[in-house]
Protein 1
Amino acid sequence: MTLVTTLVDAKGLTKNFGTFEAVRGIDVEVHRGEAFGFLGPNGAGKSSTMRMVSCVSPRTGGDLTVLGMDPNRDGPRIRARLGVVPQQDNLDTELTVRQNLEIYGRYFGMSRAAVREKATELLDFAQLTERADDEVEPLSGGMKRRLTIARSLVNDPEMVVLDEPTTGLDPQARHLLWDRLFRLKQNGVTLIITTHYMDEAEQLCDRLVVMDGGKIVAEGSPVDLIRRYSTREVLELRFPPGEQDAARVQGLADRVEVLPDRLLLYTDDGEAALSAAHNRGVRPASSLVRRSSLEDVFLRLTGRTLVD
């Protein structure tokens, strides 16, 4: 059997709900062994795309293959080789941690012996061995999230689809989950991730697309996107509300953005820009030079206006 190297191949993919175009003709390729991200504001089309890739929502138009198969014809076969981590945990809270894994494994036709062995392996992976016989309900949010991810691995999937995997978790729990996901990628599991945490995308994703209005507006590695759409550094000048004057710093940076309490100067040398601003008599309440981030790229491409 020939090993498929492109696990998701979409060309001109569309999804309509009545007259509303949620996904408007996107092209996406996800390669075996990589972590691929979908970023975008609410309503960008990320979830609709993920549902088509997960074979739970039919496409309206375009071509789509997942694991070398057509979801319209081979949905059950594809789903048997996928792991899915939904945005909201849907664990059986009245069962124990171990029972959640073992019962889920039985859905894939695994023997009782095989599923017991797999559950023990996954409990260790998720650092839940000591809680194996506890009911799920009292677990912390981070533990429940780790269990949901562990459950998605019961069938040894070739690809795991994760929708906002760390939403609502504290920093320690997020970093532990990042470590678990990184280990999965090291073991050859392909990851597809939607997230609204830009630092998460930078940490986890080899490549990503930024979606807005149902279309892809940028694609590349986090480093490539920062290089293409931002500058090496950002100088933040904070002022009392209403006292920032962008005219006084014009020409000191490639781009100046005005926010209610600060000016953002996008430049390759933040310290030089700060010195030049001081020479012009600009006296901010505080200043900060930081490296450009994926969040700067995201906001430039999709805007700062809240979308519901």
Protein 2
Amino acid sequence: MTFLSILFALLIEQLKPLRVDNPVYTQVQHFAAKVEAWCNAGKAHHGQTGWWIVVGSLTLPTALVYWLCLRLSPFAAFAWNVVIVYLTLGFRRYSHYFTSIQVALSAGDEEAARRHLGDWINKDCSQMDMADVARGAVERSLIASHRNVFGVFFWFLMPVGPACAVMYRMSEFLSREWSEPEHMQDEEFGQFARRIFYWIDWIPARLTAVAFAVVGNFEDAIYSWRNYASRWNDELLGIILSAGGGAIGVRLGEPENKAVILAADASAVDIDSLELESQPGVEATPRSLQSAVGLVWRSLLLWMLLLALLSFAVWL
């Protein structure tokens, strides 16, 4: 049922992808903002309380409904699984940004490419050249595919899969929402959300990196992972980006004076320790975006194949 749930959810999303501003996500954002306003008194333990309120308020009802559906009918449980996977997966949620950047770069319209990337990452990209924009789009797409697809896959395979998938997505959302906005960067409130998401994402990030290596250039991906992942301040981003960049032969990460764009947080890269010239790969180009798309799709097929084999083994 797990494999079929993911398969049906992916098919539905291909036909009707959820937009970033869909009503479900909008309500979740409002709820998280209210909890932050209620709990934020400037201390780290207040953030811990807020995290448990938000995540528990969404995870526990999801688990309860799943249990009731199992008692009612396997088909009801299957339908609930599909709904939750559809809401938590985001394989095409940000694809319009990526596609717009790819089209603009292919047409040589640098201004449009900068504008689309800026809208995607909520940063000023007006000083970037085409290599910077291409690299930023590749980095963002690799991180988005992990956090919106492969990380969800891993937690959906756990017991009470729908609740675990919701827990993962909410943990990832709160780690950003309570840390990245300018007014939250210097506060202690988001420390717990960042720390607990690190442990929640510890295994999925490594599995994503392994998948990138298997379906891409294995030797360069593993070499970059072993030698360059530690140069990012954010270890998980470093693992995914170093392995992903090595897999497609593109150097990711760039000194600050060239407007680094690293996933959702430019500060995640340790600028002083980067030695890009020694890394395998070439500078990002518009063709690198197509390579990133192929890498993500092949990784998705690998995950689905392994899941199908696991489901078949359990059924036997």
